[in-house]
Amino acid sequence: MMAMVLFLLPCLLSTVYAMRENRHDLERREGRIGLGLFTKCRSAKCNDQTFEFPGDLGGTLAIKDCQVKKNQPFEGSDHHRMCEETCTVSLTNNESMTVKVWRKSGHGLQECELQKGGHYDLCRLAKCNDQTFELSGDGGTFAFKDCQLNQSKENQPIERLNGEAMCVETCTVLDSNEKSQTVQVRRQSGRRVKTCQLMGHDLCEDTCCVSKCGRSGQSKFQDCELKGPVTIGIRDFCVEKCKAASSGSGSVDVLRPSGGQAFCEPQAMDFVEQLEKDALSISDGQYGQLPLMKAVKVIFFLRKVKEDVLGPEFQAAEGHRTSREISTEVKHVAIIGDLHGQLFNLIAHLIRIKETYKDKGFIPLDGSSLLFCDPRMQYIFLGDYLDRGERGIELLLLLLAYKARCPKGLILLRGNHEDPDVWDDYGFGGELQHKFPYGHLFIRQEVSTLVSLLPYVAVVPGNFMAMHGGITPAFVKACTGKAGRFGKCLDRYIADMSAWADPHKGNGWIPSHRGEYIYEFGMDEAKAFLQSNGLKGIFRGHEQVETGHTSMVYDGYYVTTVFSAADYVDTFCRGQEPPWMFGAAGEGNSGAFVLVDLTDGTVTHQAMSGSKTRALAAQFTGAKCHGSWLETGSHQSRSIESFMQENHKRLAHGNTSCTLDQTEVDSFKEEVRKILSTSKDQASQEFEARKLIDLQGEALTHGESIEICRSMKKDHITL
């Protein structure tokens, strides 16, 4: 019997197993699995397992209270028998959420998997409060405030972006006008605060949106109004018109960068105060220490003067753009000649002019300690503000600041050095490069455009004309008999050539040492021209004068030369010549100005030595020269040989192979002897010799056909 059982048992077990497998196949085909007694899902095994939950309230959380809801397992993707459990999870705000997990059927602990497709990336909280964002242009930096979550059904994400669940919040911001505005903000669902992105809005993103210079923190301005944008170089700025809170003056233009933070800088008034009082205090080449000496500020200022002052004046003078007529209201005229970047000379002359007229009751220019701005008073500057000197850009800026604040009170004439073609040879180009390493090309362009708007001649009808150089044959031919109204007869080419002309003591026209096509005019020519226009004289600059001024008179008609640069081509602090200055052309000369009383015809000349102008400027500004010389006698003048060598070094790029024939040599010797014979002593002779050498250098700049080496040979003859 036992043997029979042992024989049939394997067969019975094999049959049962085959029947079981057939049943599984049938159930699998019918979409269900029956696992029998030992493979059912009977107990929860996922308690305390942790998962990384997405969504606003997510994080690394443990599941609890798991229960098996269905005993029957299901087949997983890899044909494993899987059990499903329903658990709870405590979220970060202590709320509970029901989740479903899967695990394999089996004994012992099993790794549980969070059921896919569950809505765990819910939008539950506002998370954008105090986040900041920045708009382009003048929009600035904003912070989101009072944010509220935009609710959706069952807190589901509002949208999905690139597969990520996105939540939307409604927040408020303070716009450019500091007014509250509602905006929509989008962020990614998640426990950690994500970057909140501004959606549709009406906030300003223009270059300039609103006035910012009168707000708290900018208390030096008030009642500001936005004027508009301006581009300087590659940066955008905004211009506002404000009242200066610290004074009772009128409105001033204020510059600030486009953007959220307002760093507001005043212009013309600020330039006057800094240049009058502080510029000379900057020594040892540290010119950038002056606050206004920033390329952006200088470019903006030059543009504003061009657009608001010189441009409109130029347009209003249509048909008279090369000439200006002095108003009949004017009773007193101050005439200042060449300054060539010597700011200390200008300050000293203005001090003396103000002292002279202190009892006339003239109205002072607001913000200036040196200038009058009165309809009875006219300043005429004869040109050559640039080149050679130490502070050409500062001097020009001060004169333009005066012009901006008192447009009718100043006439700035154009000289032959208000020309970009000579700036590289005579120093202004190097000065700009040194003082503005990262903006000099923009400044050069602005100055070039601006000086092209300056007139060449100023006329007091029935009295005199003022100009830089003098009359030329073309000038006389075009403008004889015009009653002093030269604007319509004087074209730009004739005016340019007139800036190079000089008088001579004889009669007629003679070639000038300054170059081809340039002539010196005799007093007979001057008389005939002045007489035809009902004028009595010419005030002009352009020429170095040892005493600061000199006059030629012929039958009651005069030509007066005014040269205002005392110690010509020298610095305030002697011995501190900057690298762009190529040497002194006339050390020791005086500088002068002329005062004309139009009520009685009185003409007064006032001259000062270089040491006197330095002393006056130092007393006025408080500037001191450390480790250098202030007085003229403390400084050793360059010899004429040294000056000639420096001049030749500057011109050494030209042809060095040439000859002068004996006739040329003899003729030039005779000219030089004639000029030097009028000098009263050796110092005066050296002064005149420097002039001749300097004129030869200017000729090379002006006329391309003149050989440099021929000029150098003539310099040796002069020496």
UniProtKB/TrEMBL annotation:
Gene3D superfamilies: 3.60.21.10. Residues 1-18 form the signal peptide. Pfam families: Metallophos (PF00149). Coiled coil: none annotated. Belongs to the PPP phosphatase family. Residues 413-418 form the Serine/threonine specific protein phosphatases domain. Keywords: Hydrolase, Signal. This is Serine/threonine-protein phosphatase. It catalyses: O-phospho-L-threonyl-[protein] + H2O = L-threonyl-[protein] + phosphate. The lineage of its organism: Eukaryota, Sar, Alveolata, Dinophyceae, Suessiales.
